[in-house]
Amino acid sequence: MAAPERQWGNLLPDRPNDECFYREDEMEFASDGNWLARILLSLSTLGYGFVTIKADFNKTHATNPDWTPHARFHVVWQILSYAGVALIAFGLIWLGGPVPRERLYLAAALALAIYGAFFVAALARPLFYGRLYDDNGYLPFRPPVGPAYWRWDVNVTAFTIFSMITIGAILAIK
């Protein structure tokens, strides 16, 4: 059996400037044609990483007196986790480096995982007796179109829009 450091054979480079890290024929980051994808991914990332801080770090969620202290702990943990993931995504989107196209797809996958988990939780509400809103939180609103009795949930509306932006970003990656 080979020594552990040679186990991976030629998959790991000996030096950072080996071909898997840098190729002369790679397009420059600024001219790779993915500006639209980067802007859309940035909007999507702002949605889950920083809009949630504004929306949830207040009396409707993190300091809601009707929530148990443990539930408040979990929402703060969630908010801070999303912010951390967003910082990683911004690095993938805007910092130069190897495999730039794949980095954009990874940033998009992070967004889809977060938004997708929201929709799975929304659909699974009956399993844990959940609700989309609290009476002392963000209440559903009357949409700009449709019958007067329609009400849209704020989170479902926002996350649908951000999910569509993410899909648009994926489609814009060249």
Chain-wise SSE layout:
Layout lengths: L34 H22 L12 H26 L5 H24 L1 H4 L25 H19 L2
Short summary of the structure?
The protein has 174 residues and is mainly alpha-helical. Helix content is 55%, strand content 0%.
Gap between N and C termini: 43 Å
Quaternary structure type? single chain
Number of domains: 1
DSSP summary, beta strand count: 0
Shape: globular
User: Into which percent range does the helicity of residues fall?
Assistant: 40-55%
Instruction: Give the overall pLDDT as a whole number.
Output: 88
Q: How large a portion of the residues is in β-strands, by DSSP E?
A: under 5%
Low confidence ranges? none
**What structural class results from the helix and strand content?**
mainly alpha
**Number of helices, counting only DSSP H or I runs of 4 residues or more:** 5
Question: Radius of gyration, rounded?
Answer: 21 Å
What does the largest sheet look like?
none
Q: What keyword list fits this structure?
A:
about 170 residues, mainly alpha, 5 helices, about 55% helix, globular
What would you say this structure looks like, in words?
The protein is an all-alpha fold and about 170 residues long. It has one domain (about 30-135, about 145-170). It is built from five helices and no strands. The longest helix has 26 residues, at about 70-95. It is globular. The N and C termini lie far apart (about 45 Å). The relative contact order is 0.15. The mean pLDDT is about 90.
